[in-house]
From TrEMBL:
Domain Smr: 152-239
Secretion signal span: none
Spans of repeat PPR: 50-80
Superkingdom, natural source: Eukaryota
Pfam family, one: PPR
Alphabetical list of InterPro entries matching this protein: PPR_rpt (IPR002885), Smr_dom (IPR002625), Smr_dom_sf (IPR036063), TPR-like_helical_dom_sf (IPR011990)
Xref: SUPFAM superfamilies: SMR domain-like
Species: Chrysophaeum taylorii
Keyword annotations: Repeat
The UniProt record lists the keyword Kinase: no
Name of the molecule in the record: Smr domain-containing protein
Amino acid sequence: MRRRRAAASHAVASFKMPRAAQRRSAALAWCERRGAWSQALAILRRMEADTSAYNAAMGACRRANRWKQALSLLDEMPESLVTQKTLRTAIAACEQGGQWRRGLELLRRAPCVANYNSVVAACEAAGEEAAAEAALERGLGLYEVWTEQGELDLHDMSVPVARTLVRLVVRDTVRWPKGRYFHDPYLMGDLVIITGRGHRSEAKRPLIKPAILRLLASIPHLRFRVHPRNPGRVVVDDASLLAYARRTSWKARFRDLVPLARYAFLLPSFLTPRQAWSSSWSWSWWYQKRY
């Protein structure tokens, strides 16, 4: 115990804290601002920790990219001390470590825009597009998505959230009339996506627009163009959007009929039952591999 206290005091003294930061609470705040995670943990072990002390220590770990230590602090915290700020820091740590499953669990306890951004970014980084879409679909009511003119506005969104939202809107045309965020090409015409010109980004260059263009280019049979008079807008052709919806829904319906092809009465009658069974299996395997 004496060695632990001596090591903690030496760790605190080695950082040459100012005189105003000699108190432990002020020292924890000082460590949080500078990302001194080891010193913050040493101070935390020497005091009767409360909510602010745990939050400061978790913030120091997150700032130093020590997401494992931040999540371990959350696990050892009493449930009565956990606040929304604590969960927000933990979800940000999950984004750093790519812990998208843990982030989804914590998101149910603290739903807000910042937490949704972190969880969607973690899912996108892990390649879990379905999980990102499911998470964003639950919290889409917190975002201002559509303008009065029926345009999809991606301003003030992160790149992962913008990509996930565009995928939701495009794929939602297939689920009509059960879709929740459906853009009806029959009534509204072309889908206009406002990506912005990058004036609000820290780098002062467009970040969302290149990502959206790459995403739309990866969707087959989808035609789009940059607005000729406003380069901050991308226009998706309504005819190609309808063609994509018809093609995707046709494939989905036809895929459900694939298991029925294993029955002999759907195959030519001149085949023997053994030949019919083997050919139906090979045809089903080819179709599922092709589509």
